[in-house]
């Protein structure tokens, strides 16, 4: 079994080839877990994020290149490097994101320009991804060869269709923008982070209503635990007077979850369009062009709301918050690269464990070091939500091992 991994802003595409068939999987970037294709052992369950299940044009994809196996010591060092990079990048990312919205200038105003923030973050990702493609082209490691086989400076995939990135960029920038608006409107970082971990809820609801999908009791309990725990934590903070104006914050985080659900369908369409065009995008192709359209939509929205000029003015008068923003943006770009590095060398479930535990640590570190007051009721809710998240990961790991044993025994 050979496989090639390709990454976008929120998802990593896996192309797996056996003796006679090739299949494509879509991996959720935030949890690093492979999403089940239609021919999996659990045919009766819809994937948490949908993917194209058709077989057309898949065989036209070029055969993947298999990396030589590494010894145990090398694998341990690779895992330490990949997991350490994910932890360092995204723990710092979460801390900086919270600091941006907690920052208060000398005149008492706070940074609330969420769409301007998305312009800067997606812009940093575009710059990082484009630079990587140029380096790949100059070093001969990219796909940017001309018709004569001569290497070009641009290492991106030739004839890559750009239109599919339009809807993907819109849905993803809306999801991130609504999350930032939730923080800007008083929702605490721990509550927002836990709520985003329950993003499978709107997808499950849509699959049940529109697709007739069925889920097991454990899956329902996992979602219920995350949502209930998050609600208990949010209400306990509100009762203690530690949080204000969280009603609007809750509305925005719910909108972010809805956009997460929509993004799943959008990614399904993007994958199908790539198959139809018979192109195999590289990880940095997807990172660059998804973020390019995210940045374009963020610019349009921020200008229409008057946030762009306000954001520039605020940063010009508050150099500290601008420093926080550019560090936050670079952590986003670097963290995505570490996720791809880890998934490319290990089973995606390894990356799932790393990224999920990272979210838990982000919440705990925020509570301990950002001055959040959590009463006893809040700790109960926090434990309930974390228990649901861990149960989800354990369930997926067990499922992955079961599939691996089944393949070995065949």
Produce a short descriptive summary.
The chain is built from twelve helices and four strands, in the order E-E-E-E-H-H-H-H-H-H-H-H-H-H-H-H. It is mainly α and 410 residues long.
Word description of this protein:
The structure is a single chain. The chain has 410 residues and is mainly alpha-helical. The chain has twelve helices and four strands; from the N terminus they run ββββαααααααααααα. A hairpin with a 4-residue loop joins strand 3 and strand 4 (33-34).
Q: What attributes does this structure have?
A:
disordered N terminus, 5% strand, single chain, 4-stranded antiparallel β-sheet, 410 residues, 4 strands, mainly alpha
How is the secondary structure organized here?
Layout: E1 2-7, E2 11-17, E3 22-28, E4 33-34, H1 72-102, H2 114-138, H3 164-184, H4 189-196, H5 200-211, H6 217-239, H7 246-276, H8 283-304, H9 307-317, H10 319-345, H11 348-369, H12 376-409
Antiparallel strand pairs: 1-2, 2-3, 3-4
